Amino acid sequence: MIIVLRDDATPGDREALIRRLSRLGMTVHESEGMGGRILGVVGDEDLLHSQSLDSSPGVERVVPLTKPYKLASREFRPDGHVVHVGPVAVGGEKVVVMAGPCSVENRADFLDVARRVKAAGATIVRGGAFKPRTSPYSFQGLGKEGLQILAEARDETGLRVVTEVMDPRDVDLVASYADILQIGARNIQNFNLLKEVGKIRKPILLKRGLMTTLTEFLMSAEYIMSNGNYEVILCERGIRSFDNATRNLLDLTAIPVLHAWTHLPVIADPSHGTGKWRWVPPMARAAVACGADGLMVEVHATPEAAFSDGDQSLLPEKFAEMMRDLRKVAKAVGRTL
Amino acid sequence: MIIVLRDDATPGDREALIRRLSRLGMTVHESEGMGGRILGVVGDEDLLHSQSLDSSPGVERVVPLTKPYKLASREFRPDGHVVHVGPVAVGGEKVVVMAGPCSVENRADFLDVARRVKAAGATIVRGGAFKPRTSPYSFQGLGKEGLQILAEARDETGLRVVTEVMDPRDVDLVASYADILQIGARNIQNFNLLKEVGKIRKPILLKRGLMTTLTEFLMSAEYIMSNGNYEVILCERGIRSFDNATRNLLDLTAIPVLHAWTHLPVIADPSHGTGKWRWVPPMARAAVACGADGLMVEVHATPEAAFSDGDQSLLPEKFAEMMRDLRKVAKAVGRTL
Amino acid sequence: MIIVLRDDATPGDREALIRRLSRLGMTVHESEGMGGRILGVVGDEDLLHSQSLDSSPGVERVVPLTKPYKLASREFRPDGHVVHVGPVAVGGEKVVVMAGPCSVENRADFLDVARRVKAAGATIVRGGAFKPRTSPYSFQGLGKEGLQILAEARDETGLRVVTEVMDPRDVDLVASYADILQIGARNIQNFNLLKEVGKIRKPILLKRGLMTTLTEFLMSAEYIMSNGNYEVILCERGIRSFDNATRNLLDLTAIPVLHAWTHLPVIADPSHGTGKWRWVPPMARAAVACGADGLMVEVHATPEAAFSDGDQSLLPEKFAEMMRDLRKVAKAVGRTL
Amino acid sequence: MIIVLRDDATPGDREALIRRLSRLGMTVHESEGMGGRILGVVGDEDLLHSQSLDSSPGVERVVPLTKPYKLASREFRPDGHVVHVGPVAVGGEKVVVMAGPCSVENRADFLDVARRVKAAGATIVRGGAFKPRTSPYSFQGLGKEGLQILAEARDETGLRVVTEVMDPRDVDLVASYADILQIGARNIQNFNLLKEVGKIRKPILLKRGLMTTLTEFLMSAEYIMSNGNYEVILCERGIRSFDNATRNLLDLTAIPVLHAWTHLPVIADPSHGTGKWRWVPPMARAAVACGADGLMVEVHATPEAAFSDGDQSLLPEKFAEMMRDLRKVAKAVGRTL
User: Fold this and answer.
1) Best CA proximity match to C217, nearest among C239, C192, C247
2) Is the CB of residue C140 less than 8 Å from the CB of residue C164?
3) Neighbour subunits, B (≥3 Cβ pairs < 8 A)
4) Hey, is the C-beta of D290 within 8 angstroms of any chain B C-beta?
5) CB distance B283–D252 less than 8 Å?
6) Residue A192: is its pLDDT beyond 90?
7) B37-90 residue pLDDT tens
8) DSSP, residue by residue, B28-53
């Protein structure tokens, strides 16, 4: 950590600060020739972070030298990490596609869509049983019944199942049905939920929040990992911007940046990322082209009758067409799909 | 609800849509003279919202005619609503000041600060026992011990107590100690937590999220109210912007806008809203000048030693000075403080 | 245009509004069965837009039925438009690459880079002679001397030349040297400059501003086109966001959305879009994968000595490597490069 | 300037960097005990800024120690600066109110409004003769005729006149009629226009752009000042956000922050800052309460017939009422109005 003192810091400010840092067990190096404004501090940076040094008299700025995340950092596993979901490997050569409706609405329709996305090449089926909705008056999901339908779809198709958990009290229930537990964008800093899914031994799909910086995103992954669960998949799904041309703003640059900063696999959700089925195929191609390890895509047989997010759901036949196009792009960047 | 059809919608699109709306029990009025592009739809708008009409063939846009929130709307209680917290009335003529440290750190310091903010005119003391921290390695709060210290401060000073609850499993525990339960910015769309605090009978302080529109803010209040708890206080505490000149961007215009849209009391938190104690007094004055029903302010006797948010904490003497200035502004706008 | 009246609009409000619209030559259709809240208005929407109808007593909302841009709309040329720059066609099957240093710094280095980007497959060379710099103390470009070097590079290599014009007084000068005139992000709503480049007969490369909605972007194109110059190329170059992980936030979804809304060619600038040379190749691949008609890329032989934007400049050999990879992606989506 | 080297920087990276800095005439201080990762560099920081040091091999981060603006900084004139506009002093004890219609529409209406805002206490009248409009089809202002009407209003009422200049070619013309030249939000980084108004000797009202950081704002002031014109008034007028509840997001915290960073006077424009006349009085009160040196407010006798911005214009009688309320707030914070 470097501490930059203010132009007008007094010798007293300086000495008081150095005394305080020494008491905390830190070694302070005073930089020569910079007008005495620079202090180098060696010691436990986490402890330093908790010290509100910015507000000490005479301090202009504190420059950390270490990243706040450890387990999630690329340095922790320089070769990258593959998350195994039964036979499916997320983070390997093959781009993994997770597809299905926004919500599980009923047994017959869900099984039908599951079969169709499998036929087109998906290996994981998605569907919400617990739905976070802006309005308390909107459909909130089928709950446990939805989970049972998801499990039935797995049994029948062999697809693995991903579904969202919203409440720390539901973690065990959801984990008993799902193969991957999804933490939704709105819960990216629901720290108690993150801790709870950190205690189980199933992969977690962590979706970036609407306003989450990439550093904060990795800190949320760190919450899960520091509780013992290292199997985290990151998902870019669009952030909020000033333009309502699309529902969210898909930040695809996050994919290569995250790949440089962390060893965790990174996938993209172009359905939420754009909010219109029409933009899903081109943005899915773009995501694969810049290195996404997977895609999460909403597919619905009758989007105009969907209980939620019909606007952004692809018809099964459009999904199949997209998959064919994606295979060419995957090959062009040295991967399979 | 009005449905605007696309320029190139076919007669078939149009008829299919009208049939579908009719099956849902809606009455459809076809506007003459607008090229057949306008349909007026009368019926349950909540049901209509769930229909993904935007994605129906031929539809360009859907224009709702009703607000998505009901219980939180100004129309529900045109004269406004006062939330009573023991002897303290939030939403009346008197501007209510809630002050105290970010976290409860220990008994002695907390009682000391409580006495000092009371002496300066605060009527509610704040302090976090459960702390939402970006890093899993940061201080997470004293938990139950912190709640006990809060209760002791109330007993000794007569101040009422506000503190955050982060987990639906902790709602009863926190409610057994606190007078107001705070929902933090990061949990603004933690819907299960909102439902849970909707079931108790204590006032809720709901903080706007970093990326929450005012409509979404009221929808989150609606979650609490539709579960039975009508005693909600809204708190503007800064949103996220592109400029890091301040920690957050305090959106004071939200105060008069919310007062027009809802009957709920609205307060401001200039400590989180700016992130620097230096900007707190001017922004507190501004908040009162534009109609805030209260303020939440961080005060700490030794900010540079605070476990969290020291940068934005006022010294008790600065707080007292600010209170004196605020009284003049309150008077200038016809209120007391 | 549809006008939605407020719930509490009086019959007087309603009649006054209808009278006013009639005086303007509009036909007003009153929708039945919607509580009298809906008025359909037929007439010149541009005239209507100038009427501040939103502020008329009793009006809740005005819903336009036509787009504010005409000449730039897809409807104007449903088959799309190809901008010809000498032998180079922007908007056709071939993805056009424009490359070169941020600034023209001296003759020898510029000619050297021009030759190298040509060898790698670029058909247009870029380089700034007039530089918009945040600081008045930074290098402001070589001006006319820079233009002469650009022209010399064209003569020697056969590459076409694109360079920025910042001042309406310089339009003729720049047009006498350059093949494409670039309007930079900071001048996206410098309307007098847009009008001035609308009067010449050379293609214009219009870069989206940091905070420009896609509708505003097309309105700025409309300024150029309505002055007579239809040869406009749009360039997505990143917008501003809350996260400083990258310099700007490249909004690649803008590419398919703009292709749907307008007939103008759309290219991407991943150098400004990301701000780091390391992220340029993956995002260039993504741009091609989602349909970009071209790319603008910064290349510099000694980035660490560049007068501006060295951080985001590729070395010529990295550029050549990227071009090889891009050819595969272009082929995968049915194009050449 | 401090340079932080990467963890994995090689001794070769380090030596090459030190050699390069030495060649530029810099003195390099190597901090001991920080793993050799910290270099302190003393020399001309402007020269250093132009060196793209961030992109040098082995460099992680560059931390500047000086602000990029000099003439605009508070340090340049610690006691603050008062801009004199004839008899009106902006930046003194008295809060200065500038009021009038968005556009000058015709002689009679403008003179009428000028008289009425004067009667209510305004000392400067505003009105646009050159209008920056998003659409080329909207009213673009009366041009020179508008300037003549402005001058006539000054002659008749004694009010001083502020109006916008959009084009470097119009600076002399506008300066021959107006007392203050306004640079609009869209031209905040139109550097050639800034240079041009830097050459005249009339006060400049510089409006913050929709996406301008406070540092960039001061850099744009620096452009004007470094060309010789020190009489700059800054105006906060709302920035762009993700919420469309208001037209823009008024960032009132900018007022105390700018007062700390610069000696220039700072005013607020709550009309553009909110976009609705209804929110103007509360936000004007808030601006005065947090230290604004002045206000710019739109007033129109028939807002629903305004050629532009009718929604945000106050009726003259509402303006007079607001002025009465503002006097009380000004007094409460130790100022007059």
Assistant:
1) C239
2) no
3) A, C, D
4) yes
5) yes
6) yes
7) 888 888 877 677 666 777 777 888 888 888 889 999 999 999 999 999 999 999
8) EEEPTTSTT-EEEEES-HHHHHTT-G
Phi/psi of residue D56, each to 5°? -70, 145
Residues of A in contact with B54 (CB under 8 A): 310-311
Nearest to D65 among A37, A40, A65 (CB): A37
pLDDT tens readout for residues D89-99: 999 999 999 99
Q: What is the pLDDT of residues B301-312, one digit of tens each?
A: 988 777 777 788
Nearest Cβ partner for D29 among A33, A75, A244: A33
**DSSP for B169-211, written as a single string:** GGHHHHHTT-SEEEEPGGGTT-HHHHHHHHSSSS-EEEEPPTT
Residue D68 forms part of a structural domain: no
Assigned domain for B68 exists: no
Share of chain A above pLDDT 90, in %: 75
Burial B180-189, CB ≥16 within 10 A → b, else e: bbbbbbbbbb
Q: For D211, which residue in chain B has the nearest alpha carbon?
A: B242
On whether any CB of chain C is under 8 Å from the CB of A243, the answer is yes
Would an 8 Å CB–CB cutoff place C290 in contact with chain B? no
- Residue D189's contacts (CB-CB under 8 Å, 6 or more residues apart) are C132, C134, C186, D209, D212, D216, D220
D105 and D45 assigned to the same domain: no
Q: Which residue in A166, A212, A206, A217 sits closest to B167, CA to CA?
A: A166
Query: Is residue B271 less than 8 Å (CB to CB) from chain A?
Result: no
Pick the residue from chain B with its C-alpha nearest to D288: B286
Interatomic CA distance for residues A10 and C169, integer angstroms: 52
Regarding whether B140 and B14 lie in a shared domain, the answer is: no
Q: Which residues contact C35 (CB under 8 A, 6 or more apart)?
A: none
Q: Which of C34, C75, C240 is closest, CB to CB, to B242?
A: C240
Backbone angles phi, psi at A148, to 5 degrees: -65, -40
Domain boundary among A63, A93, A116: A63
Instruction: Examine the domain organization and report whether C48 and C159 are in the same domain.
Output: no
Residue B165 lies in a domain: yes
Contact criterion met (CB < 8 Å) for A311 and B222: no
Our CA-based measurement puts residue A249 at a distance from the nearest CA of chain C, in whole angstroms, of 7
Q: What is the pLDDT of residue A49?
A: 65
Q: Which residue range is the domain that position B22 belongs to? A: 2-63
Nearest to A189 among B53, B186, B192 (CB): B186
Residues 63-122 of C with CB under 8 A from D: 68
Give mean pLDDT, residues A116-134.
96
Examine the domain organization and report whether D143 and D242 are in the same domain.
yes
Strand C266-268 and strand C294-298: the pairing is: parallel
Q: Which residue of B has its CA nearest to C37?
A: B65
Distance CA C163, CA D91 (A): 42
Check if the interface score ipTM surpasses 0.90.
yes
Query: Is the CA virtual torsion D29, D31, D35, D38 positive or negative?
Result: negative
pTM of the model: 0.95
**Three-state SS for B301?**
coil
Nearest to B257 among D246, D286, D331 (CB): D246
- At D14, which CATH number? 3.30.70
Percentage with pLDDT > 90 across chain C: 75
Nearest residue in C to D140, CA atom: C191
Cβ separation B40–C31 shorter than 8 A: yes
Q: Are residues A133 and A234 in the same domain?
A: yes
Of the CA atoms within 13 Å of residue A179, those in its CB half-sphere come to 25
From CA D283, how far away is CA D329, in angstroms rounded? Answer: 12
Overall average pLDDT of the B6-31 stretch: 85
Tell whether D253 and D316 lie within a shared domain: yes
CB C57 within 8 A of CB D304: yes
Q: Give how many domains chain D has, as a whole number.
A: 2
Structure tokens at D254: 């900018």
